[in-house]
Write a structure and sequence with these properties.
Blueprint lengths: L4 H4 L3 E7 L3 H12 L4 E5 L25 H14 L3 E4 L2 E5 L5 E5 L3 E9 L21 E2 L2 H4 L7 E5 L3 H10 L5 E5 L9 H9 L3 E4 L3 E7 L3 E8 L2 E6 L2 E4 L36 E3 L11 H19 L11
Length: 321
Amino acid sequence: MNLDPEAAMQDVYDVLIIGAGPGGATAALYTARAGLKTLVVHRGAGTGAYALAERIANYPGVPEEVPGDVLVARMNEQAASFGAQYVQDAIGMVDLQGDIKSASGNQGYYRGRTLIIATGAMGRGEPLPGEEQLVGRGVSYCATCDGAFFRDQEVAVAGNNNEAVEEALFLTRFASRVHLLSPTKDLLVPAELVEEVLHHEKMVLHRATRTLAILGNDEVTGVQLRDGDGERLLPVSGVFVFLQGRLPITGFLGDQIQRSEGGCLEVDDMMQTSVAGVFAVGDVLCNHLKQVVVAAADGAVAARGVERHLSGRSQIRPDWH
């Protein structure tokens, strides 16, 4: 379903959506079905909060219990069937000035006449001690970008979700050994990925292990860990961080959009933010009931707002106004 990033960069889309959770997927479904050229940029399957739900039994119209990642995958497949395009990338920066909004990722640069932010709320607060000082000196957030710099060296990957595991497996192409530091006892990924990790000759899984600090002066020399046996030092040359928290993932926006005191994005009745043509849905919003059905509803409303914005109407109003 993913589009080549180089192909995605060649066009200006009617709608650029960052995030493929229930809010982003539903928005893509509605905008694509409305004939709007839609691009969804996402970090990979199973990287959102919905993927942590082993069973969802209260989604309307789906009487059987279904894993969260399966339900959202169906939404994205439906959106793709109407023409929505998808590219896997991690967005690090956006430019919201002017009529064309742009987003810069590890793999490319994407442009849209409107933007929908659907990145969820699994962001971290404070970085690990040593993390910020050593970014670019052994600390990375993209194995595809930086993996080749660690050929024949030992590296660590901190995280337990699909993104962390897939990046760790990619690193085995270069590193002599990859230490996967899972903060939980079990990895939050499909069973086949767990088996691949357990049986890969270059991988070591550290279960229920907390990453305390990244060590080094001019370059990474190791990580300080805590597990059931206490604290210890693991010597590595690189650390790839894919840890999750509970904060809205909005750091890539800089100070371009108005936020509440809690860091959530503020929107109007049509999910439009303080920047015209920029919308937000799902768990990046304040006072938000964290349910798949609510995020999906947000996506539908935002899609309607996008249609009205692109039609050139001076004011965006919901249908009941």
